[in-house]
Amino acid sequence: MPYQPRVLVSQVIPGPVDEVWERVREFDSIDEWHPVIADCTIDDGESPVQVGAVRDFTAGDRTVRERLVAHSDVDRYYQYTMESDAGAKTDYLSELRVDPITESDRTLATWSAHYHVDAADAAAEAEHLQKVFSGGLNTLHDEFSD
Question: Considering the entire predicted model, what is its pTM?
Answer without folding.
Answer: 0.92
